[in-house]
């Protein structure tokens, strides 16, 4: 239980150092940028989506591996990573109209979601989609805690 609480404290954005992405934020950034590179061949829209997609798929794949091996506690902890990643993507999506988040390029015109919503002529969708993704992130925290504690909860029955 202590390990789970420590993991929650470390993984939730802004808890350790408010305003900074923290360790997992930097890990997510690596997978985000790798997604752009790996999907560059598939066209502009897929390449732009690839960053956020890979940022979510990598922890999701790790969850799948742990569940397949029957390691629920590990799967639950990694679900907290997925929640962190979802929270990051939700903030990025919601930021599209304003483009206030710092980008590694330093150029607000390279904002993936601003470009996507501009291509789709749907910039007004950004706040709503950001809220939906944030709600999914909060749900992932609850699911992660439940999955991590499943064996303990089952023993008490």
TrEMBL record:
TM segment ranges: 42-67, 74-94, 132-150
Record's keyword terms, sorted: Membrane, Transmembrane, Transmembrane helix
Listed name of the protein: Zinc ribbon domain-containing protein
Organism encoding this protein: Deinococcus actinosclerus
